[in-house]
Specification:
The protein has 869 residues and is an alpha/beta fold. Helices cover 45% and strands 12% of the residues. The protein has five domains: 9-174, no CATH class; 178-398, RelE-like (YaeB-like fold), CATH 3.30.2310; 429-507 and 633-724, P-loop containing nucleotide triphosphate hydrolases (Rossmann fold); 525-603; 732-868, Rossmann fold (3-Layer(aba) Sandwich). Residues 414-421 have low confidence and may be disordered.
Length: 869
């Protein structure tokens, strides 16, 4: 059959698979059964993409379940949902040969086209899509065309029979309750001793395999009234068991908590499990605990003149921020930041995010915009628990297990694994359609790296889908790149990983340059000293050696200067020693000599290597090797590295995704992206929720940065306004001891207590220098504590306590952390005056040391101990 223009051609550039399927349905318009069956597949594929882009999980084989979830998407109006269902019904009729007409096929074609236009406009696929008038397709007339139609129908029906078999298998699974868990179960199981912990895990395993074979007891039967009637008790022995929430209308069993029966009653009795009337999410909260938290934090010396923080908001305003109505009295009592911190631990996550925004000075409208909330176009059905469980806000704390998951896998996994479902703010970053580079900021623990990894998955599966479309994920250090690769390998198929490079630039560049005939030779430390000694002999100004080293790094190499004329006119903003034209020429005698010696020896320093690669990529016959680049820890990249990243990809939508936090800059210096050809104006997002660290640890860590002005990676300033943690926790323990030996004694004592209920690999002992780290590791091993230094690519024993320098802690997290030697001389590390060219260089060193302490302290999830002497 001859190819003709299709009513779905406007999808070719953005969704070629949908365009092909729509055009195929048109081609077979003369046989309504085939046409409608293809349109049903078109609808199934589009519904899946809509749910993917909205961050919602669905059952791959079941179209009806996909369409049921559309109610949870604000942009899916009743008319749109009706179109989806009409095409599904017509397609089902075609499958079962129930008498389809050309009129039904034509109506479905029009609705499918309308759905495609809506999809492009609402999900940023092609918001400016231009479409013409609908052109009615013509029926096939030749015998050849008729034979092709018959063959197509037979193939489609055979495929449908296979699909029906899968659906029957899935239906059998659906007869059993879906099982899931609340985030509280993780900590509860972690706190159990043996044999209770093993008994709980074994019971959870049986519950997942066959829920009907597990004994359940009505939680309120033998106790005084007050429990939610949907709660059940699943005993694992005479004294302990598991608390479950049975949601019959959603056919779901949620495991909430585990432990002793009496403690379980105390945890459960005043818990509420409600669907929020504005958000539509299922919320778990405790009214009594919330009221006690606010009342218990009242400061005796609190001035009576202070007004409640949320006095200016109406009850309706507060509820619109995700606060359950029963918690209104507790919110109304909040006066101080301390009370808000204590209350936050007992609020649903959405409410916590919103109230912190309001407390930071945001208006209601600014808060809703900041959080990306849209009011549902349909009234929330608070009895529809299926939809509530699928809500992204619900999935922050409650997750239903996937068929290939087990409770033990989830409970033993790291915190990122538990958070399979992204925070709605992160999900928006993952699927954003950006007309150019996109920047993500956020303090430590806000999930920037998690968002980057899921963004990578989205781009590979939804945007750059061609066989030859390659992506690069990179970061500053090799260790972090290796960690990223390990995580991405769990999210992507081998075929997808084959189109992805995950490595830092120091590993990528040598291979690239070698492929273009460039032999890279870098100066050794001895060679560099020799070359500098010869160059410094030309000094006539009496400037310290450190001045020339800094000038070389911060001016010459940063700007790619190679001549005296370029240096005389170069910007020296941020340098502490003023130089007039005469002095600059004298300084160039030294710096130019060093440059000349490098060139004659055929040696390249790192910035030279980076610029050499960028120059190759500028050649018209060298195409960019990647369609998109995603970079983590961008704050540590210099000018040359950022310019290279820009050269690695063509200028196009979704070309760059750049993640960083200048509060964690421990290597580089401030650089404005715009000066490197990376223009992100209007395309930026700041994450505010710390998922890792408790509020008390976060506050202490942030105090290390007090008095510092922090940049936003593009020449502006950044603040931690609205930055908050989900858990309050306890303040860090600050211990001052007499000596290093006394500190080692304290560490041994801490480990003795911690190792009773904590996995050794979840504990890290950290210090500023390699020497102190080696002494710590040796002393612990001698005392009988198996320990291992985190260094390079070596796999560490599972049963070993981790020991690391503060620099190596970057990008990692642990339940418990000890920072050893946090006192003057070590943190900040003392260096002699000769190490600095001027006062500003010393200040920059101290700034990086402050950032390093912040980085190290924010690796602790639950407990932080700081030792000094």
């Amino acid at each position: 059959m001859a190819a003709t223009a299709s009513n779905f051609d406007f999808l070719k550039s953005s969704r070629p698979d949908l365009a092909k399927l729509g055009a195929s349905a048109e081609t077979y318009y003369g046989d309504p059964e085939v046409c409608l069956f293809k349109l049903r597949k078109f609808t199934e594929m589009m519904a899946g993409e809509v749910l993917d882009l909205s961050g919602l999980k669905y059952v791959p084989e079941a179209l009806s379940e996909r369409l049921a979830l559309l109610k949870n998407i604000p942009d899916a109006t009743p008319v749109v949902i009706t179109w989806f269902h009409d095409i599904r019904k017509a397609g089902n009729a075609a499958v079962h040969e129930l008498g389809c007409t050309p009129g039904a096929a034509m109506s479905a074609l029009r609705k499918a086209r309308s759905l495609a236009i809506w999809f492009c406009a609402e999900f940023g696929v092609d918001p400016d899509v231009k479409v013409g008038k609908f052109i009615a397709p013509a029926a096939a007339t030749t015998s050849e065309d008729q034979e092709a139609l018959k063959r197509a129908l037979e193939e489609e029906r055979a495929e449908h029979e296979l699909t029906e078999a899968k659906l029957q298998e899935h239906a059998a699974r659906l007869n059993q309750p879906r099982v899931g868990l609340h985030v509280a179960l993780d900590d509860a199981v972690d706190a159990l001793g043996e044999p209770q912990r093993s008994l709980v895990l074994e019971t959870l395993k049986r519950l997942q395999a066959s829920p009907s074979d597990v004994d359940l007891v009505d939680f309120g039967r033998d106790t005084e009234s007050g429990f939610d009637p949907r709660l059940r008790w699943c005993p694992v022995d005479e004294a302990s068991g598991i608390v479950l929430l049975i949601l019959e209308s959603a056919n779901a069993w949620i495991c909430l908590w585990a432990g002793d029966r009496d403690a379980a009653e105390g945890w459960t009795k005043t818990k509420r499990f409600d669907v929020h009337p504005d958000l539509g999410s299922l919320q778990v909260y405790d009214v009594d605990a919330a009221n006690d938290a606010v009342a218990g934090d009242t400061t005796p010396s609190m001035p009576e003149s202070l007004d409640p923080k949320f006095k200016h908001l109406s009850d309706a305003d507060i509820i619109s921020l995700g606060v359950p109505q029963p918690l209104l009295p507790a919110v109304r009592l909040v006066i101080t930041d301390g009370q808000l911190e204590q209350l936050a631990e007992h609020l649903p996550g959405a409410a916590t995010d919103a109230l912190y925004c309001i407390a930071s000075g945001y208006t209601i409208e600014e808060t809703l915009a900041e959080l990306g909330w849209k009011k549902p176009q349909q009234e929330v059905d608070t009895k529809d628990l299926d939809v509530a469980l699928a809500h992204p806000e619900t999935q922050r704390t409650i997750r239903l297990l996937e068929p290939d998951e087990t409770f033990e896998d989830v409970l033993k996994g790291p915190i990122e694994r538990w958070r399979t479902y992204l925070h709605p703010d992160q999900a928006k970053l993952v699927r954003v359609s950006a007309n150019g580079p996109y920047r993500v900021l956020g303090g430590a623990g806000t999930g920037k790296t998690v968002a980057l990894m899921h963004r990578t998955v989205h781009l590979l599966r939804q945007v750059f889908v061609g066989t030859h479309d390659r992506l690069l994920v990179t970061t500053f250090t090799r260790n972090l790149a290796d960690d990223l690769r390990k995580h991405l390998e769990t999210l992507l198929t081998p075929e997808e990983m084959a189109r992805l490079d995950v490595l830092n630039l120091h590993r990528w560049l040598p291979d690239f340059l070698a492929s273009h005939g460039v032999n890279v030779r870098t100066p050794s430390r001895t060679q560099s000293k020799t070359l500098w000694k010869r160059a410094l002999a030309k000094d006539t100004l009496g400037l310290p050696d450190a001045f020339y080293f800094d000038e070389w790094e911060q001016v010459i190499q940063a700007q790619g200067i190679s001549t005296s004329a370029e240096y005389v006119s170069a910007s020296r903003v941020g340098r502490g020693t003023a130089l007039d034209r005469r002095k600059r020429k004298a300084v160039w005698n030294v710096l130019g000599s060093y440059r000349e010696q490098l060139d004659k020896s055929g040696l390249l320093e790192w910035p030279d290597i980076v610029r050499r690669a960028a120059a190759i990529l500028q050649k018209p016959d060298v195409p960019p090797p990647y369609r998109a680049v995603l970079a983590d820890e961008v704050q540590d990249f210099g000018v040359a590295e950022l310019e290279l990243l820009r050269a690695l990809v063509p200028v196009a939508p979704n070309d760059m995704f750049l993640v960083g936090d200048a509060h964690q800059r421990i290597y580089g210096r401030p650089v404005a992206m715009g000066q490197c050809g990376i223009h992100i104006r209007g395309r930026s997002r700041r994450l505010k929720v710390n998922y890792r660290t408790t509020q008390k640890i976060r506050e202490w860590s942030v105090s290390a940065l007090r008095g510092m002005d922090i940049d936003d990676l593009d020449g502006g300033s950044d603040t931690l306004k609205g930055y908050h943690s989900l858990r309050v926790g306890t303040p860090p323990t600050l211990l001052s001891v007499a000596s290093e030996d006394a500190a080692l004694t304290e560490v041994r004592g801490l480990l003795t207590g911690w190792l009773v209920g904590t996995d050794p690999s979840a504990i890290c002992i950290s210090a500023r220098t390699n020497g102190l780290v080696d002494r710590l590791c040796g002393a612990l091993n001698e005392a009988g504590f198996e320990s291992a230094v985190i260094d390079g690519d070596a796999d560490l024993p599972e049963g070993a306590v981790r020991v690391a320098t503060m620099h190596r802690m970057k990008g990692l997290e642990f339940k418990k952390v000890v920072l050893v030697g946090v006192h003057d001389g070590l943190v900040p590390l003392h260096l002699p005056d000769s190490a600095f060219g001027d006062a500003l260089s010393r200040e920059e060193h101290e700034r990086r040391e402050q950032c390093l302490l912040y980085v190290a302290a924010t690796r602790a999830r639950d407990e932080l101990v700081v030792l000094s002497w």
